[in-house]
Write a structure and sequence with these properties.
The chain is an all-beta fold and about 350 residues long. About 0% of the residues lie in helices and about 40% in strands. It has a 4-stranded antiparallel sheet with strand order 1-25-26-27, with no helix packed on it. The longest helix has 7 residues. It is globular.
Length: about 350
Amino acid sequence: MHNFWHNHRMRLHLCVLLFVAVSLNAQNFTVQKSNTTENLRGVSTLSNQVAWASGTHGTYLRTTDGGNTWQAAQVPGAESLDFRDVEAFSADFAYLLSAGPGDQSRIYKTTDAGKNWALQFTNQNPKGFFDCMAFWDRDHGIAVGDPIADTSGKLKFELIATEDDGKNWKPLLSDTLPPAVEGEGAFAASGTCITVQDNSNVWFATGGKAARVFRSTNAGKTWTVADTPMIHGPDSAGIFSIAFRDASHGVIAGGDYKHPELDGPNLAFTADGGLTWKLSALSPQTYFSAVAFAQPDSGGTAALAAGSARAAYADDITKKSWQKTWDLNLNALSISPTGDAIAVGPKGLIVHFAAVLK
């Protein structure tokens, strides 16, 4: 979303909400040495102590030892770009998405741990602005951008997809994609405004004048859309993140990044695949910029939320109170299959959450 892009350069304090199935008493966090002072908004954590992160000035980071050491570098020729999303599949293989107007929206890929980066996609529409991406597997992915006018003049979200590990990113042109509301957009806050599940389910979330969830069960060939009870109206408010643990159970999180202390409604969940959404009773609900489930196959509902003012843990999203809070300022977070989490934030902040699965 363009207003968000321009404003958050001056606002370094954004937040993250992630759902983590962990034992609270066994959970600790450690601030790690990132070797960068860039603002970080993308992170992707794997199961073998491998993680990638990304941020401003073409920066990407990589660790292969659980964050004990991080290597920070810049993608050649991308020094002016802001990498808002990173999706990694191994210590060598990762995608980066930069968010920005026109040709500042790009997708890069490496297969050799960053020694070489292939520029796979450059947005050619000066009115276009890509926000985030998600992958079913390393070959099949999808990215979403803010609405642009189609050939009939209707405002529609811009969608591109790949089926060949990014060699070709093709527009997803669907007559069934509902038009955008004037003033509606997506947020490039943490790389989590779009999510995928199984091999064909995909959802993306919006904000601004509307806070809605778009849904496809066939990899973007056809779409439906659902209204939500989340905060919206100003360009700075709406849904910032969406996650699903299976085809039915999902969560959305957001708020107003210009007023991060406002108490929602900033969190909602679904049990019917995103057709309907119910507000969470957890309180307080500050602004959240990302949300994710851990132990997606367990059916657990424990939650770890992190924001510009605090991080907070709840063992059940349907309850009313957080069990614990911490003074942390984070932008994005990724959970590994083993339950550990890596969180990133402003000025090169990286935090490792050591989590013991229930």
